[in-house]
Specification:
- The protein has 265 residues and is α+β, with helices and mostly antiparallel strands.
- 37% of the residues lie in helices and 22% in strands.
- It contains seven helices and seven strands; from the N terminus they run βββββαααββαααα.
- One of its GO terms (biological process) is DNA recombination.
- Belongs to the RecO family.
């Protein structure tokens, strides 16, 4: 094993034997990885605070040379506790959904500094209650690119033509419908502002979207579509996702009515 110093966000940890933990982080140098923290559950351990869920820490580890064996923690230094997540339950739920995505997907095993910075920024903003709902929506939307499931909002999904006038976003096919393919006898035209909002998301990046004007009403709609997409198309499941989808606004009848009122008025 070689000794390395890395930074990372703790995604999950669980007790192992009497005093040890197995910890999974997303790191700046190796992407998603796990290591064993020996003796960390002892009252005298100086490493325990660096291993709390969602904390941002610097770790000195003995890096395993094989992906099939665990690295070993030497020391951990807490940089940011993100304890604000324990004060507002919804924010904790948002962070848990982000953690679920990172834990379940094999795409995140290799190093990707862009993903690392997205994760760090979103968790930190949610913990500090800085537009937490928007941060969750933006993180999921932009992480789709790295999951191989990015939506193409640059063209009509029906005719594949670009630079068209679009009439609606199809929630079942996750694409825009142009004026030529739109059927007014079967479909409701959606607001131009909503279509522009979606196209603006595609034009931006996770970092640049923070400079754009937010629209919470549109984000409420988009989040349900994104979570459904994660479950049905990507195959990501968790209690935290189900709990959020169980909220009143996302129940089928209420969501259909809310969406209709927001997008067609």
């Amino acid at each position: 094993m070689s000794e390395r110093v890395i930074k990372g966000i703790v995604l999950k940890s669980f007790d192992f034997q009497d005093f040890d933990k197995i910890v999974t982080i997303y790191s700046d140098k190796f992407g998603k990885m796990s290591f064993i923290a020996l003796g960390v559950n002892k009252p005298t351990s100086k490493n325990m605070y660096s291993l709390n869920s969602f904390s941002f820490s610097e770790f000195e580890i003995f890096k395993s040379r094989s992906v099939y064996s665990l690295s070993k923690l030497k020391t951990g230094r807490l940089l940011e506790s993100n304890l604000g997540l324990t004060k507002i339950y919804n924010n904790y739920l948002f962070a848990s959904i982000i953690s679920t995505i990172m834990l379940q997907e094999q795409h995140f095993i290799g190093k990707n500094y862009t993903i690392y910075k997205m994760l760090e920024k979103s968790i930190n903003n949610i913990a500090n209650n800085k537009n937490p709902f928007s941060n969750l929506v933006w993180f999921i939307f932009y992480i789709l690119k790295f999951l191989g499931g990015e939506w193409d909002l640059s063209k009509c999904y029906v005719c594949n033509q670009k630079n068209r006038i679009y009439r609606r976003f199809d929630f079942s096919n996750y694409g825009l419908v142009c004026a030529n393919c739109f059927d007014p006898s079967k479909e409701e035209k959606q607001s131009v502002e909503f279509i522009d909002y979606l196209m603006n998301l595609q034009k931006n990046t996770f970092n640049s979207i923070f400079h754009e004007k937010m629209n919470v009403a549109y984000e409420i709609i988009l989040l349900r579509v994104l979570l459904t997409y994660l479950k049905d198309e990507i195959g990501i499941f968790s209690k935290s996702i189900d709990e959020l989808l169980a909220k009143e606004i996302y129940r089928e009848k209420e969501f259909v009515e809310y969406t209709y009122n927001v997008l067609t008025n």
